[in-house]
Write a structure and sequence with these properties.
Layout lengths: L2 H19 L3 H13 L5 H16 L1 H11 L10 H16 L5 H15 L4 H15 L1
Helix pairs in contact: 1-2, 1-3, 1-5, 2-3, 3-5, 4-5, 5-6, 5-7, 6-7
Length: about 140
Amino acid sequence: MSARSKARKRALDILFQADVRGEKPAVMLAAEATRAASEPARQGSWLYAREIVDGVIDNRDEIDEQIVTHARDWKLERMPAVDRAVLRIGVWEILFNDEVPEAVAIDEAVELAKEFSTDDSGSFVHGVLGRVARTR
């Protein structure tokens, strides 16, 4: 697994935990930073995970607007917490990270959804992110 794939998993963990616990993602990010400092072997994935979470925090309103617009009849609060976090990561990569091709951002998000969410989440995430990418 690539360092960026591992970073996406770490970012998913941070965003998901913040959502479920009702914490600000910045609080969870700070806790993870403390932990990451004691794990130098995971430094490569930590830097990109932090970039993702910071990007989601900085652009949260626009990201959530894109998700709601393209989720077709789904309210953000009705989505599973994992799907919300995966979509936020995917939308951030599509809209705000020019280093990641759109297709890679979508594929990586779909894989996270398949691994950590419901049976239908992969196709749901794919549909939403595909629409975001097409309207970019």
